[in-house]
Amino acid sequence: MRITLWGTRGSLPSPGPDTVRYGGNTSCVEVRGEDRTLLILDAGTGIRRLGTALEPGAARVDILLTHLHMDHILGLGFFGPLERSDLEVHIWGPSSTTLDLETRLTRYLAPPLFPVRLYDLPCHLTFHDVPLGDFAIGGFQITAALVCHPGPTVGYRIADEGGVMAYIPDHEPALGVRHLPVPSDWTSGFDLASRADLLIHDAQYGAAEYLQHVGWGHSAITHAIALATAARVKRLIAFHHDPNRSDRALDRLIAGSRGASPLPFSFGAGKEGMRFHLGRPQRA
Amino acid sequence: MPQKPIELILIRQLAGYLSIPIFVVDAEGTLLFYNEPAELLLGRRFDEAGEMKLEVWSTVFLQKDEHGAALPAEALPLFVALRQRRPAHRIIQVTGLDGASKMIEVMAFPVEGQSGQHLGAVAAFWSPEGV
Q: Is any Cβ of chain B less than 8 angstroms from the Cβ of A151?
């Protein structure tokens, strides 16, 4: 599979000279299968540029939302391909205990908060309450599981023959835990991340900042590293950067989190435009 | 060991901060956790007792009704919450693993998850002697 980051910022779009390198768009990740299946993880503002890059011949897009906080759906109405009448768009995301995804999502994507109703757009739109467990889209085997974050929120584990990625952009596994890691069976997100080739994970705060934001639903970068270590992932990409974090401050956060001994996985901060390929190495 | 459902993880985390004794079982009735205040009532640290099947914990912790008559497992509030998926309350006598008997009030409720999944049950204990 091929993975492209289109938005890596958390909470609020933060364009400007201080965020040019890592980007200011909110969560959006493209996952492309070898069979051309296209998954879009979250519909933050990064989805607008993804929409402009989508090939005209694409017949189906599956948008997998982790949850409905605004930074993860803000771009949905600006995803240009929704205006294509020949495109099937499937939107997957968590229901609540009383409302289905469609009802929850269209509360925002309707007047007075948004000028157009989703159903007024020309594309063929289908909503799916994401099943908690395993399901398949194209050549991908997908697992959705609830994770620790305010409101119904899932993380995704996506596998194909080439490898496994896990996407947990909003996650507070340290909530109520005195020291991470705790035993794996009591760690939120562990099964999703277990032995993944690539883990894209919330790392919004520094350790000291986290203490001022306990219960807000996010991780300190040290928590992301602890989970990645326990889950034995091959690569960790810090994600959902704080909107107030400049590029230089993010460089310092990453550098300062590495510790004295080498990490047992590859580690870096997600940047808009960053690409990954999970699979057999290709011939030149 | 597979990861527990997030609802049970959050209940355990909450229980770890409460001074009310809390006892958590999964959908099969397996004891997953009890907190430190419950350790005082049950006479053994959870780390030493570990997870237990329903058939084990329902007999290991000797339980009688408030008049001292033996109670079958089916009459325990936690069992009712688990099997009938409804809250239950009762005053019982429990003899912990330290051999001490105490009269306690038990309130139990089922844990129904996000998708309506039956995930287990929780019991909270009150002791007239304090917790």
A: no
A25 is written with which tokens? 């768009």
- Label residue A106 exposed, middle or buried (CB < 10 Å: 0-12, 13-18, 19+): middle
Q: How far is A122 from chain B (nearest CA, A)?
A: 32
Q: What is the pLDDT of residues A92-139, one digit of tens each?
A: 999 998 899 999 999 899 899 999 998 899 999 999 999 999 999 999
Residue B118 exposed, middle or buried by CB count within 10 Å (0-12, 13-18, 19+): middle
CA distance A91 to chain B (A): 18
User: Is B105 a member of any domain?
Assistant: yes
Listed in sequence order, the DSSP H helices in A23-79 are 46-53
pTM: 0.90
Comparing A2-11, A23-32, B50-59, the range with the smallest average pLDDT is B50-59
Asked if A185's CB is within 8 angstroms of B17's CB, the reply is no
SS3 state at B60: helix
Instruction: Please judge whether A94 and B114 are an interchain contact, meaning their C-beta atoms are less than 8 angstroms apart.
Output: yes
ipTM over 0.90 threshold: no
* B4 chain-A contacts, CB cut-off 8 A: 185-186
For residue A253, give the nearest of A210, A282, A212, A217 by alpha carbon: A210
CATH number at residue B96: 3.30.450.20
Examine residue B111 and state whether it is found in any structural domain, yes or no.
yes
Structural domains in chain A, CATH included, are: 2-277 (3.60.15.10)
Residue B32 forms part of a structural domain: yes
- Number of structural domains (chain B) is 1
User: What average pLDDT score do residues A161-186 get?
Assistant: 92
Chain B residues with CB under 8 Å of A152 CB are 114
> Which residues of A fall within a CB distance of 8 Å from B17?
176
For residue B131, pLDDT over 50 is answered with no
What confidence tens digit (pLDDT) does each residue in B33-77 have?
A: 999 999 988 999 998 999 999 999 988 888 899 999 999 989 999
